[in-house]
Amino acid sequence: MAQPETTYLVDGTAICTKRMNAGMEVQQLAKAAGITASYLRKIERGDRPRMRPGAYQALRAALNANEDELLAPHRDVPERK
Questions:
Q1: 65: pLDDT confidence band, cut at 50, 70 and 90?
Q2: Backbone angles phi and psi of 8, in degrees to 5
Q3: Closest of 11, 4, 6 to residue 73, by C-alpha
Q4: Are 65 and 18 in contact (CB under 8 A)?
Q5: Which residue from 46, 28, 45 is spatially nearest to 37, judged by alpha carbons?
């Protein structure tokens, strides 16, 4: 059986866009998601591209986002030969 994700690789630009489209300030979203505004800014800038499951789920809920809307796009990594 597969192990659950330990962290989520998030798309900071998508999070920022979703927040702005919702008409929320950084501080408002951070408070709604139970994280600090500083942490949210780092996520949006791409300085902190990974989030723990609890924080990610809270952010998703605060933005009314679907399951993978805020995740970074999957990139296929070529196999080494």
A1: very high
A2: -115, 135
A3: 11
A4: yes
A5: 28
User: Bigger pLDDT: 49 or 4?
Assistant: 49
> Which tokens sit at 45?
């800038």
pLDDT value of position 33: 98
Q: What is the DSSP string of 21-53?
A: HTT--HHHHHHHHTS-HHHHHHHHHTSS-EE-H
Task: Please answer whether residues 11 and 56 qualify as being in contact, where contact means their C-beta atoms are separated by less than 8 angstroms.
Answer: no
pTM of the model: 0.84
Residue located via tokens 């979703």: 18
The more confidently predicted of residues 74 and 17 is 17
Cβ(44)–Cβ(12) below 8 Å: yes
For residue 9, list its beta bridge partners: 50
